[in-house]
UniProtKB/TrEMBL annotation:
Residues 44-114 form the Cytochrome c domain. It comes from the Bacteria. Keywords: Electron transport, Heme, Iron, Metal-binding, Transport. It comes from Ureibacillus suwonensis. This is C-type cytochrome. InterPro entries: Cyt_c-like_dom, Cyt_c-like_dom_sf, Cytochrome_c550/c551-like. PANTHER family: CYTOCHROME C-551 (PTHR37823:SF3), CYTOCHROME C-553-LIKE (PTHR37823).
Amino acid sequence: MRKFKGVITSVFTVGLIMGLGACSGDTDEAAVKKETQEEKVNEALAAEGEKVVKSSCTGCHGIDLTGDLGPNLHNLSLSKEEIIELLIKGRKTMPPGTANGMEEEVAEYLLTLK
């Protein structure tokens, strides 16, 4: 009977390890796929945002966005949400509504600037 319990325990342990290993592999693969899809969406948003920035922001922030009348827009320490709020509400000499409903796209683009 003891020998039989040891075999059952071993089989159960091996099965549990294999089952958990299979599950974790699927989860990692799904997470990587989801992350890749999100990056594609972000790239698409950033591309749209770049168009808005080039037509609306370069007059004050300079052609290369490193600053002129307005501040440098590279390496911003603001979050995406803070940038969106700033674009909607404006701040100091920056007028509100300069992104014309494309705030998320502009924020995505600005966050890519290094």
